[in-house]
Amino acid sequence: MPPSNDPFYAGLGQAVRIGTELLASLVVGGGLGWAADTYLLDSGPWGLVIGLAVGAAAGIRNAMRAAQNWPK
Question: 55, 27 in Cβ contact below 8 A?
């Protein structure tokens, strides 16, 4: 499907993309932290907390990169 020429839908598509990337990075970071806690380290909730923090940082970094590429 070709990109929309309507600025509303183009902006909406970018917003959905960034939201999806943020959510995905949180899920992956949290999942890896949980797996490290459960199967590798037995360290309580700290792997999950650190995984969520790293996932949030990665998601924000990706959102900043995507926002810099928007046309002005």
Answer: yes
Q: What interhelical angle do 46-68 and 7-35 show, nearest 10?
A: 160
The amino acid sitting at 22 is L
Q: How many CB atoms lie within 10 A of CB 10?
A: 14
Structure tokens at 38: 């459960």
Using an 8 Å Cβ cutoff, are 58 and 25 in contact? yes
- pLDDT tens per residue, range 3-56: 667 777 777 888 898 999 999 999 999 999 999 999 988 888 999 999 999 999
- Angle at alpha carbon of residue 59, lines to 8 and 62, rounded to 5°: 65
Nearest to 30 by CA among 6, 7, 53: 53
Residue 45: what residue type?
P
